[in-house]
């Protein structure tokens, strides 16, 4: 069975631009969460969606937004990119109250 | 508080030795404690997890020890192998938060042959 898939794997943007990252969950998983992992640190929670509704939001500015589609895939959008947004963005999927399984992430570099 | 503190930051052990990584948490509402293993260029992979109703869980060479009163839990890797060289993260979540994970800072483990 396919795991969590994320696209693109790498992305280079400049300050002020916006970016859209995509995630396809494991088949049957209805919950998708997004995390930001800065180099050398643990992942930080950004959003969780379950059944297309936002169920949690971490301490991130409004420049970060997300949504979940009827097929349970998800997008993370970041506007007005800053140098500090450079990180690995991880998507995790899970069943209800089940362990989270992570994709390999999108490496975002801001120039 | 939502923090999870992890130590040591880095760890070097010899092949066949025991690797021990420790974590401490503050929020007594946490009720799920997983450990993740991450290789360079990859996402974190679930290794083993425990709930606070048990004090120890073992899966193969990996054991979690849990001390509820001290609000601490640790990962023991027995017979450490070079292939275990990776970054390990402890995490915690509350069932009421919909499995939102709070991660420790990570431990970079190197197992020398």
> Could you tell me the mean pLDDT of chain B?
93
What portion of residues of chain A belong to β-strands?
over 45%
Shape of chain A: globular
Approximate strand percentage of chain B = over 45%
Measured by residues with Cβ under 8 Å of the partner chain's Cβ, the largest interface is:
A-B, 27 and 23 residues
Poorly predicted parts of chain B:
none
Structural class of chain B: mainly beta
Q: Mean pLDDT of chain A, nearest integer?
A: 95
Secondary structure class of chain A reads: mainly beta
N→C terminal distance of chain A: 37 Å
Helix content of chain A: under 10%
- What is Rg of chain A? 13 Å
Q: First CA to last CA of chain B: what distance? A: 40 Å
The major pleated sheet of chain A works out as: 7 strands, mixed
Percentage of residues in helical conformation of chain B: under 10%
Provide a count of the helices of chain B. Answer: 0
Work out the radius of gyration of chain B: 13 Å
Protein traits:
heterodimer; A: 111 residues; mainly beta; seven-stranded mixed β-sheet; four-stranded antiparallel β-sheet; 51% strand; globular; B: 113 residues
Describe the 3D structure:
The complex is a heterodimer of chains A (111) and B (113). Chain A is globular and about 40 Å long. Chain A has no helices and 11 strands. Chain A has 111 residues and is an all-beta fold. In chain A, the strands form 2 sheets. In chain A, strands 2, 4, 5, 6, 9, 10 and 11 form a 7-stranded mixed sheet that branches. In chain A, strands 1-3-8-7 form a 4-stranded antiparallel sheet, with no helix packed on it. Chain A starts with a strand and ends with a strand. Chain B has 113 residues and is mostly beta strands. Chain B has no helices and 11 strands. The N and C termini of chain B lie far apart (40 Å). The model of chain B has no long low-confidence stretch (mean pLDDT 93).
């Amino acid at each position: 069975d396919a795991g969590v898939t994320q696209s693109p794997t790498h992305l280079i943007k400049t300050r002020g631009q916006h970016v859209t990252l995509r995630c396809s969950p494991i088949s049957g998983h209805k919950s998708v969460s997004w995390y930001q992992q800065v180099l050398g640190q643990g992942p930080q929670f950004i959003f969780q969606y379950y059944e297309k509704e936002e169920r949690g939001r971490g301490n991130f500015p409004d420049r970060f937004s997300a949504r979940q589609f009827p097929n349970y895939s998800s997008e993370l959008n970041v506007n007005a990119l800053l140098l500090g947004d450079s990180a690995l963005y991880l998507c995790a999927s899970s069943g209800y109250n089940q362990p989270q399984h992570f994709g390999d992430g999108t490496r975002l570099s801001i120039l | 508080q939502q923090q999870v503190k992890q130590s040591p930051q880095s760890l070097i052990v010899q092949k066949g030795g025991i690797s021990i990584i420790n974590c401490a948490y503050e929020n007594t509402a946490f009720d799920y404690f997983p450990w993740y293993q991450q290789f360079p260029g990859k996402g974190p992979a679930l290794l083993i997890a425990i709930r606070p109703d048990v004090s120890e869980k073992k899966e193969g060479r990996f054991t979690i020890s849990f001390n509820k009163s001290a609000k601490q839990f640790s990962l023991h890797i027995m017979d450490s192998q070079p292939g275990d060289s990776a970054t390990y993260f402890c995490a915690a979540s509350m069932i009421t938060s919909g499995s939102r994970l709070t991660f420790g800072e990570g431990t970079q483990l190197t197992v020398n042959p």
